[in-house]
Structures are given as C-alpha cells and as structure tokens.
Design a protein that fits this description.
The protein contains three helices and four strands; from the N terminus they run E-E-H-H-E-E-H. It is an alpha+beta fold. It is elongated, with a radius of gyration of 23 Å.
C-alpha cells in the first residue's frame, strides 16, 4: 500500500507482505523512501534510509593492543594455496 502526501511517498506493508517482498522494500528504502510496518493495520515500526551509508573507520582506543600483538606472525612456509 502506498500513501501519497505533500512532497513525500510513504509505503506501508503488513508483516507477512514485508517478509514475502523484503528485497523490494529494501530497494525502495535505498532510493530514499520510508516504509511503515503494520501489524493488523497498526503501525509498529518504520524503515528509513541511513543518512550516511557505509562503514566508518575509527582510531583504536587508548590502551588497545597493537596489531602486531593481536595478529599471529607471518608463516615462513613456501606453499602455493592453489
């Protein structure tokens, strides 16, 4: 079900429909649309697009061990994995 409003398109989906067509609804969210999830015609949740998609890289916290202490040393074996 789609509801048209002023400068906004909001889709609504019941739980069973969302489960059956999740990929389609997620594509809509990627395009910037909002999807409201209904449980017996009662809104219970909303799927909204992220403001900044993707991962953020952060610096290690103070006192965290260096990668040399966490990772094992490289192997000296001369092997070809293929």
């Amino acid at each position: 079900m789609t509801i048209y409003g002023y400068d906004m398109v909001m889709k609504q989906a019941r739980i069973a429909e969302l489960k059956a067509r999740l990929s389609e609804y997620l594509r809509s969210v990627r395009r910037g649309e909002t999807v409201t999830i209904l449980d017996r015609d009662t809104p219970i949740a909303r799927i909204v697009p992220l403001r900044q998609p993707g991962l953020r890289v952060r610096n290690p916290t103070t006192g965290a061990p260096s990668p040399k202490r966490v990772l094992p040393p490289p192997s000296d074996l001369k092997l070809d994995v293929l």
